[in-house]
Amino acid sequence: YQGHSCHILYISVTSEQRTKRVLAHLGPVTFCCRQTHSNMQVQAKKCQSGMLQVLQQRTRVPTSFLTYPSHSCSRSSKGCNIACHPKPTAKFICSSLATSTPASAVPAPVPPPAQPASGPLSTSVQAPGINFNTIANTGAAKAAMPEWKSLLGGVLAGAYISFGCFLSLSVGGSIPGIATSNPGLQKLIMAMLFPVNLMMVTLCGAELYTGNTAVVSVAMFEGKAKVSHALRGLFYSFIGNWIGCFGIAAAVAATGLMAANPLPSAVAVAKTSLDPQTAFVRAILCNWLVCLAVWMASSATSLPGKVMGLWPPVVAFFAIGLEHSIANMFIISLGIMLGAKVTFVQLWTSNLLPVTLGNTVAGVLCVALPYALLYGTLGQRLQRPSSA
Predict the structure, then answer these.
(1) Which DSSP letter does residue 348 get?
(2) Can you tell me the distance from the alpha carbon of 350 to that of 231, in angstroms, rounded to the nearest whole number?
(3) Which pTM does this prediction carry?
(4) Enclosing H/E stretch for 310
(5) pLDDT by residue (tens digit) across 143-172?
(6) Cβ(327)–Cβ(241) below 8 Å
(7) Side-chain half-sphere CA neighbours of 35 within 13 A
(8) What is the distance between the terminal CA atoms of the chain, rounded to a whole angstrom?
(9) How many helices (H) and strands (E) are present in the chain, helices listed first?
(10) Which residue has the higher pLDDT, 232 or 49?
């Protein structure tokens, strides 16, 4: 159903445990309905039924324990939408057996119906529309962060990305036989190890510029973040990423572990030798995949699901050979520190500038904008004139 939103305000549960589960897992729930004038009451019942179904899936509380208050429906100003609202006296209630419901009046819990073996209904992955709202709220929180938090989170993200690069280069540079006989296998091995960095960013919490370009942009498109706040957060996360990457590169160079490894220097020379147009296009494709990895991880509600969601797109961009600005901060800096014939000016002008621009374009235009049109208020605003 599309159109105006209906909100669950009245929930009755029959045990203290279920009460806690509802409070812990409910979060914001919105379900929308749309219909012509002639069938408003029927559509309101569909809206109510759909809300209860979404709520049951989110909380795993049987629908027999969920109730909805009486509602009123009214025509919109354009006469084609309806909005279901609770009566003014309705308020949020969570009652338990111990405080409000006599034991004799409580129906026995009804177990959820068994799902067919051919296609069980998964509750470990959020639907795309719900995940979009989750990302919009996350983006709003990121944009509202004070500068020092965005900077500190950026430093951590830069360090985490660097650790993944360090691991990948260490192993990749230690298998010269495979590199000579089967370079594709070497790239695949390195790519399989690399995503440990985004896993740390996602699960531990940090401010990675490349992923934030999509997440914060969604909040802007939804009107949940001001453009100035979003740009401020992106700026400080980028500066923090550079500090974290440069610091870890200096630490790795000081360990001596990479002194005999030829990969950092070779990669630094290769990346700064790209022409700007090539680097820009590779950067767009790269961050498209990275933002999809963040998107997929966000849709999962379990640790294995998040890891499985983010791993394949990151493996893909690394194995293909695309350009990620934050990873390049570490790799090229480390190459320079280990003796590559590259300067820090070349690092910024020949690589980071076009790559950062391409990464930004991908996050905003390739990921945030299309999903805002599909699932957000931006798409609804564009649809209204044609449906009037």
Answers:
(1) I
(2) 24
(3) 0.69
(4) helix 303-320
(5) 999 999 999 999 999 999 999 999 999 999
(6) no
(7) 18
(8) 17
(9) 17, 4
(10) 232
